[in-house]
Amino acid sequence: MVLTLIYQMKFFAFNNDLFRMWLEGVATSLGLSWFVSLPTIIIFRNNVKFTKKIMKTKRYQIFEKYVGIPLMNFINRVYRAIAF
Known about the structure:
By secondary structure, this protein is an all-alpha fold.
């Protein structure tokens, strides 16, 4: 990851507009994940009583493994294709 960031910074450093757009994209992605997505998931999973019971069931684990995670991966790929 660090090598990718170093390469991207070197690649975009010669054009100020591209470098600014790249930095805005990185900052937006990190901000959304740190301040929106992760806190929402943590609050929902830990503080809602009925989710604790549901998450312990084998049915939920299978659903999350075969539907939830691939769906989120697909959404992330589509977002990346549109955003960049």
